Amino acid sequence: xxxxxxxxxxxxxxxxxxxxxxxxxxxxxxxxxxxxxxxxxxxxxxxxxxxxxxxxxxxxxxxxxxxxxxxxxxxxxxxxxxxxxxxxxxxxxxxxxxxxxxxxxxxxxxxxxxxxxxxxxxxxxxxxxxxxxxxxxxxxxxxxxxxxxxxxxxxxxxxxxxxxxxxxxxxxxxxxxxxxxxxxxxxxxxxxxxxxxxxxxxxxxxxxxxxxxxxxxxxxxxxxxxxxxxxxxxxxxxxxxxxxxxxxxxxxxxxxxxxxxxxxxxxxxxxxxxxxxxxxxxxxxxxxxxxxxxxxxxxxxxxxxxxxxxxxxxxxxxxxxxxxxxxxxxxxxxxxxxxxxxxxxxxxxxxxxxxxxxxxxxxxxxxxxxxxxxxxxxxxxxxxxxxxxxxxxxxxxxxxxxxxxxxxxxxxxxxxxxxxxxxxxxxxxxxxxxxxxxxxxxxxxxxxxxxxxxxxxxxxxxxxxxxxxxxxxxxxxxx
Length: 479
Known about the structure:
CATH class of one domain: Alpha Beta
CATH topology of one domain: TIM Barrel
CATH superfamily of one domain: Metal-dependent hydrolases
Helix content: 40-55%
Number of strands: 10
Shape: globular
Strand order of the largest sheet: 4-5-6-9-10
Strand content: 5-15%
Radius of gyration: 23 Å
CATH architecture of one domain: Alpha-Beta Barrel
Mean pLDDT: 95
Distance between the termini: 49 Å
């Protein structure tokens, strides 16, 4: 007898879990505080033409899985038709049992298209026709999909050089979901390539309409951009730290190093680290002044396959977990800011799950409510659980990874203060991953209750689930 795969109690393996999910978690709004959707596409209310465009046009998760199943690059990032790419994806899916992509794909079909058909080669034409027919309907435009997903707030990821035009237009529109920018500082913080960084300096100078003749000018320009982002509703920054380091410097050393950038002279490794450390500290202080939250995404070793990088470019599925030690330098970076009472709210993510426990320990060393802040921008720049362990991210974004992150935080921190899940995705249908997370969360806590490891107290359970799924993030970010 065949049963529906994505059913009402999917992933809920005990009665307490079912009650927690259906009573408390299911209908809560979504705060997706780290997302890669395009504000322009949201404002224009774009409409996808095919299910292949939704799933396969820009998702390196799926591309990696297709390569693992022997699919030629022509049918992944090449010039094959959208139907051919979708057909190849359907050929792969039956071999992905246990992979979150298997679950997510079927969950998206169920929630947005009301389709229970399994993804497999013999169903290609049925799925293609059914999905595409629905995508052509008015209620499948991107804004309608976001609203159907019950999104309260969605934070995009934006270059410091962005004019945020479409965020401004969205703020003036009648769109019910709030779309806010995030200050993604990688380009303005990374000095490894002098030519690329000099180009960023030039662009920043034009954007700020002021010359950048020295390092002090550069920091002033960064402050100006943060002020601009803040005026547009931004309350989060983000930085991808491929390697975590901290190196002390003097003002003279920084000006000397920056002058070499302007003249396109080669920097020493020490000078590169000094500039990057100084930029990090400057931005951290500014974030604190504005009451922002600083996100640090740690541990990506990028583009490890040179041949493939040359063929298809960066960000196409050839990055891996880094296993370098991070603890000492993460502590140094946070401590430098904390010594000046200038440590902003911070979310620490690691791509390598070996770092979950060390990062969870670091949280406890820097927690404080900071009510005596000298901030001129906000009355209270930080609240409870000021430093957060980020949710399971990228290669950890599956049930095992989520449970490990939740258990680590429960063991070493304060789980009930956790700010919940995000999608980190360019696929609007990925918003259903909040449901996936909520089911995993409810199942885990339900299991603890039924084993007698947690009280079966209605108020305690209600508050715990609702806070993690929504209320903690709402209070923490103060949007």
